[in-house]
Amino acid sequence: MPALPNCETLLLNLEGGVLHVTLNRPDNRNAMSLTMVSELRAVLESLQHDLSVRAIVLRGAGGHFCAGGDIKDMAGARSAGGDAYRNLNRAFGSLLEEAQSTPQVLIAVLEGAVLGGGFGLACVSDIAISHQDAKFGLPETTLGILPAQIAPFVVKRIGLTQTRRLALTAARFNGSEAERLGLVHFSEASSEAIEARLQQVLSQVRSCAPQANAQTKALLLAAENQAIGPLLDRAAEQFAAAVTGTEGVEGTMAFMQKRAPKWAQ
User: Fold this and answer.
1) 80 pLDDT band (50/70/90 cuts)?
2) Is the pTM of this model over 0.90?
3) Residues forming CATH 3.90.226.10 domain(s) in the chain
4) What is the DSSP letter of 140?
5) Distance between CA atoms of 226 and 77, rounded to whole angstroms?
6) In terms of Cα–Cα distance, which of 221, 134, 218 is closest to 179?
């Protein structure tokens, strides 16, 4: 069992190999404070080498996912000058990088406000489940600022053409449109349907071997920016090791014996 950090802004519940992480600043629609960023990064760090946690479910308290960055933090940074703004902004970018590459399957459950930083977190999830009435948007330009750390992840998620439209108009849209854009995978009509979908997805994740999942995720992410030849060479080495490794042997034996592998039991 991982040694999870103590958190002021997050609720953590580890159950059945799934860590449920709830952003817990409901009075601010779970606006992303520097403390929350630091705590999320600490949680991800604690799981980096622990595949007993198969999935991370990220959601928000009080009917909202995340309404963006905390304006109070921005106001506090103003007195400290440009370095403070830069450091504040870059810390969130580091969180997005770390969330995207976490070896666990990252599932985002999106309700209410999914704005700015919340939008960015949705874009780095492996699987996104939204309420049809959730409110998505990139409002930064209406505040005279830019989605500096979020933009690259949005482009990778939905493409340059749609990102340009959304970022340069600050247009709001709902969960159904988010599904059409490819931002989310499922758009559900009710909270009950969201929970049913989440349980279905978690059941599917549990059928997959944890180490194989972690390596597959890393391979998929590497495919975006690494040369194909060397990448395929490394993938072939990983495949050979996996076939003769613990998971590969167990998976093959389970298939032959017509039973569920140990990780799925």
Assistant:
1) low
2) yes
3) 10-206
4) G
5) 37
6) 134
Cα–Cα distances (Å) from 229 to 114, 122, 222, 235, in that order, read: 38, 31, 12, 10
Measured distance CA(186)–CA(182) in Å, rounded = 9
Within 10 angstroms of residue 31's Cβ, the number of other Cβ atoms is 24
Question: CA 117 to CA 196: how far, in whole Å?
Answer: 26
Domain made up of 210-264: CATH architecture:
Orthogonal Bundle (1.10)
The two beta strands, 55-60 and 18-23, are parallel
Average pLDDT rounded to a whole number, residues 120-135: 98
Q: Please give the Cα distance from 108 to 122 (Å, whole number).
A: 6
> What residue ranges of the chain are covered by domains with CATH 1.10.12?
210-264
Looking at 3.40.630.30, 2.30.30.240, 3.30.565.10, 3.90.226.10, the CATH number of the domain 10-206 comes to: 3.90.226.10
Which residue has 């999942």 as its token pair? 213
Q: What percent of the chain has pLDDT over 90?
A: 90
Cα 8 → chain centroid: 20
**Separation of alpha carbons 54 and 36, rounded Å:** 23
Edge-to-edge strands, sheet with 18-23: 10-15, 18-23, 55-60, 105-110, 127-131, 186-188
User: What tokens does 45 get?
Assistant: 């760090």
Q: Work out the number of other CB atoms within 10 angstroms of the CB of residue 262.
A: 13
- Of 14, 4, 10, give the one whose Cα is nearest residue 32: 10
191-217 pLDDT tens trace:
999 999 999 999 999 999 999 999 999
pLDDT value, residue 81: 63
The pLDDT value given to residue 76: 65
Nearest C-alpha neighbor of 128 from the set 152, 107, 97, 159: 107
